[in-house]
Amino acid sequence: GTHSLIWNGIDSRGRPVASGVYFYRLTAGNTVLTRKLVVLK
User: Fold this and answer.
1) Whether 20 contacts 6, CB under 8 Å
2) For residue range 1-41, what is the model confidence (pLDDT) as tens digits?
3) Which residue among 3, 19, 22, 24 has its CA within the 20 to 30 Å range from the CA of 13?
4) In the chain, where are the structural domains located?
């Protein structure tokens, strides 16, 4: 099915991330996806 995720741009220390290229990883069962995310401010 379709899933969605909303990220508020805050890092694990509670601070807003800077503009740049980030990588994220999604894991569901045996499936692991790594993708690129661009943050522009």
Assistant:
1) no
2) 888 989 999 999 999 999 999 999 999 999 999 999 999 99
3) 3
4) 1-41
The HSE-up count of residue 30 (CA atoms within 13 Å, CB side) is 0
Structure tokens at 18: 């800077």
Do the Cβ atoms of 11 and 18 come closer than 8 Å? Answer: no
Q: Coil, strand, or helix at residue 13?
A: coil
Asked whether the whole model's pTM tops 0.85, one would answer no
How is residue 40 written in tokens?
């522009």
Q: Which two tokens stand for residue 31?
A: 């499936």
- Locate 8 and state its tokens: 């508020």
